[in-house]
Write a structure and sequence with these properties.
By secondary structure, the chain is of the alpha/beta class. Helix content is about 40%, strand content about 10%.
Length: about 425
């Protein structure tokens, strides 16, 4: 690992002026998706992403070793020498500890963010979400968001958001936070809700986020956590945890021959359709790219990949999507690329419409999150307590402040 130069926290400006429209998600750096995430070529993936112009990375402490793997890759000498911290946008989350363990207390939120700083080898985080907000009460979400804003005031983070699965819940919480605090959220991330199977994020939700003052709405999991792939969610690591019901899993597999008949792969159709359409549908709550005229916003997407070829293919698709958004020009080469993108968009739409007919009742289906009867496994006596691992005291010493904490053994987390 190379030595790290001092971080330079850029001046705060509206999130839509700071966040890139394509983000590399690292939920795949986790045993939920691969047998051994440490076997992934993380340094090559991160380095290649930056070389291709991908300037944002998304992770979470809930994603197993993802923060550690991403942080070490970003801190590798081969990356640091060419891509300083100020050249990319770093996103993580807080609040979710395990599948059934949540702690949204201010003390835990602060600890989690400071731990993320160490894991990611940085002095600041660009954006932090409260992770999977539907699993806790609105009061807990509000308290956690307020703590994130205190951390923002201290220069530790720059933007504050929430993430989760149910779109209705995300809308309601965004509205509540504006009402209770007088300040809107910078960002809301929804996953699995703007895909070829489920387009709920692109309906009335966008109007509600607009009314709640949310600056940027992000679309994640274009493949619906692996559901919309040739392999599907019936086998491999996904089979044991994917929340989709059996009927939906089977029906999504029925989409594979439709793609094949059109000379496509299901993954390619799903990614192209989501990137292309969200770039437009999500534009009012999107980010900016220098490849389009000043002032143009593009819907922000999070791509999950686990190899360099997957990364390169997704980046090629996104580049083509951007070309389709370019204004008409007299340049013949640019005109040719733009028309190819628009023709590709039309073909993919025709394939997806055939898939919608097959999906039938499963079109726009969302499973329950959390499951009925869910109970947070975090014991009341543990809420707000933090591991005895020195993170809080190291931060206090570095910043010359005193700290008093309730501590748990490290093994608790």
């Amino acid at each position: 690992m190379g030595s790290l130069p001092p971080d330079s926290n850029p001046p705060r400006r509206p999130l839509h002026d700071a966040i890139p429209p394509l983000i590399l998600g690292t939920a795949t750096f986790n045993t939920q998706y691969v047998t051994n995430p440490y076997d992934l070529p993380a340094i090559s993936i991160v380095s290649r992403a930056l070389d291709l112009g991908v300037r944002a990375f998304d992770t979470s402490p809930y994603y197993g070793p993802s923060e550690l793997i991403l942080g070490d890759a970003l801190a590798h000498s081969s990356v640091v020498t060419r891509h300083p911290r100020s050249s990319y946008f770093l996103v993580t989350k807080a609040g979710r500890i395990a599948s059934d363990v949540f702690d949204y207390s201010p003390a835990w939120v602060r600890y989690s963010v400071l731990r993320s700083l160490e894991r990611l080898h940085t002095n600041y985080l660009d954006l932090v979400y409260m992770h999977d907000v539907e699993f806790v009460s609105p009061a807990e979400v509000l308290a956690a968001v307020r703590e994130l804003r205190r951390l923002r005031a201290e220069g530790i983070i720059r933007y504050v958001g929430i993430s989760g699965y149910p779109v209705e819940k995300l809308c309601a919480l965004a509205e509540m936070i504006l009402l209770e605090t007088g300040e809107p959220l910078d960002a809301v991330l929804s996953y699995g809700h703007y895909t070829i199977q489920n387009t709920a994020l692109g309906t009335s939700a966008m109007a509600r986020f607009e009314n709640a003052g949310v600056d940027v709405v992000l679309n994640a999991s274009m493949l619906n956590m692996g559901l919309l792939t040739t392999r599907g969610a019936a086998t491999g690591p996904l089979a044991s945890w994917h929340p989709s019901p059996e009927g939906l899993r089977k029906t999504c597999q029925d989409l594979v021959p439709i793609a094949t008949e059109a000379g496509e792969k299901l993954e390619v159709v799903a990614i192209r359709w989501a990137l292309d359409n969200w770039s437009r549908v999500g534009a009012s709550k999107g980010g900016r790219t220098p490849k389009l005229p000043a002032g143009t916003r593009v819907g922000v997407s999070v791509m999950g990949i686990s190899s360099v070829p997957e990364l390169e293919e997704t980046c090629r698709v996104f580049q083509s999507v951007i070309e389709g958004l370019e204004p008409e020009t007299s340049d013949p080469e640019q005109t040719k690329r733009r028309q190819w993108s628009l023709d590709r968009r039309q073909k993919i739409q025709e394939v997806v419409e055939k898939m919608w007919a097959v999906l039938g009742q499963w079109k726009d289906y969302s499973w329950s999150s959390p499951d009925p009867g869910f109970v947070n496994a975090r014991k009341p006596t543990e809420v707000g307590t933090t591991p005895n691992d020195g993170i809080l005291t190291r931060h206090a010493a570095k910043n010359n402040v005193s700290v008093k904490v309730e501590e748990l053994p490290v093994s608790v987390i």
